[in-house]
Amino acid sequence: MQRAPSLAALAVMSLVVVSKARAEPPPGAPSGAGPVARVPGADAGRALPAVRPLLVTPALARETVAAALRAAGSPEVSAALSSMAARARTSAVLPELFLRAARSTDDSLRLSPTVDNPYQYSALGGAGIWLEGRLVWHFDRLVFDRDEVAVERLRREHADSMAKLRAKVLDALFGWQRAVFRAEDPKANADELEQAALSRAEQEAVLDVLTAGWFTGRRKAPSP
Questions:
Q1: Model-level pTM?
Q2: Most distant CA atoms of the chain, gap in Å
Q3: Which of 54, 59, 72, 75 shows the shortest CA–CA distance to 218?
Q4: φ, ψ for residue 89 (rounded to 5)?
């Protein structure tokens, strides 16, 4: 007489079947493959476009701005302003010399009575030269000189103009980089390529003028 399987044996068999079903990979999946990471919103298997290296690096930006400042004479102007401020402060040590010369004349009438003419007057006249010399020190200018206000105003105007020059150079650099990328875009049509070539030539001319030819020589220099 055969015995019916017990409830415990049936439970063990069902657990084994479920664990095997979970362990088996889905149909079509390679055996032994680990978990596949998926990027949300990205199609599986699609290759990302290659990123072109940037032409304007921080080093190139600093060198181009420095070349533009040298071409504009910024170091010389800064040195001249510093010298003006120093001379305005130290000029108090030297005195101011005042010289004056004047010519004086004297015409007068004097009463000189006589026995015959008790109301007789005599005219007297003379001429002389008067000289004056003075030395004046202004020691208060050692602390502050009024000419320093004008020097600081010139220094502020120079700093503002150099800041505008830096911004213009950076705008031209990034415009040149965008024009180069558009000119080498294989998806661009003929009109876009022509506009990109014109924009590239324009930005290169602007940078060449601002740097007094340094930018053109920098681009033509062989890379190390």
A1: 0.57
A2: 196
A3: 59
A4: -80, -40
81/105 Cα distance (integer angstroms): 50
**C-alpha count within 13 angstroms, C-beta hemisphere, residue 46:** 9
Could you read off the pLDDT of 120-146 as tens digits, one per residue? 777 766 677 878 888 888 777 777 777
Tell the residue number behind the tokens 């033509």, with chain if given: 220
Separation between Cα atoms, residue 116 and residue 120, nearest integer Å: 9
Residue 46 — very low, low, confident or very high, per pLDDT cuts 50/70/90? low
Whether 109 has a pLDDT exceeding 50, the answer reads: yes
Dihedral Cα 27, 30, 31, 34, nearest 10 deg:
-110
**DSSP output for 15-77:** HHHHHHHHHSPPTTPPTT--PPP--TT--TTPPPPPPPPPS--HHHHHHHHHHHHHHTTHHHH
Q: Which of 7, 28, 19, 60 has the alpha carbon at shortest distance from 169?
A: 60
> In the chain, count of helices (H) and strands (E)?
6, 2
Looking at the DSSP bridge assignments, the partners of residue 104 are: 128
Are the beta carbons of 68 and 211 closer than 8 angstroms?
yes
121 DSSP β-pair partners: 111
User: Alpha-carbon distance 39 to 49, whole Å?
Assistant: 16
Length of the chain (residues) = 224
